[in-house]
Amino acid sequence: MTEITIIAIIALATLGAIAYIFGHNRRADGSEEPIVIGEGDCATCTPESPRCEQACMMEAATKPIEYFDDEELDAFKGRAADSYTDEEVEQFAYILHTMKPEEVAAWCRSLILRGINVPDELKDELMMLREN
Description:
Blueprint: H1 2-23, H2 50-61, H3 86-98, H4 104-113, H5 120-131
């Protein structure tokens, strides 16, 4: 019985050492290696994943602003979302309806980085397109 106990203790110690080695990510110099949890690229962010959206927004802020053949919308920088005329809303709607569904989230980030508010009349439709 004593031999079984000794073997069990040695086996547990070995398993513990292996778990410790694989459980700690260390570099050759002994410093901790950060654990990175990937959430996919920014095209796959969903409203249910605010952390992903925030990371994509921070990433986008460090790069040149992406345009979607919508440079004319820069004229609306700083406008309140409830202050657009019907014709101005149509400008936004035309761009929204001519882009690919997978571009909608990136377009929203572009507008935010450019300081452009989406007209209130389009927000529901925009959110529905972003969720798909």
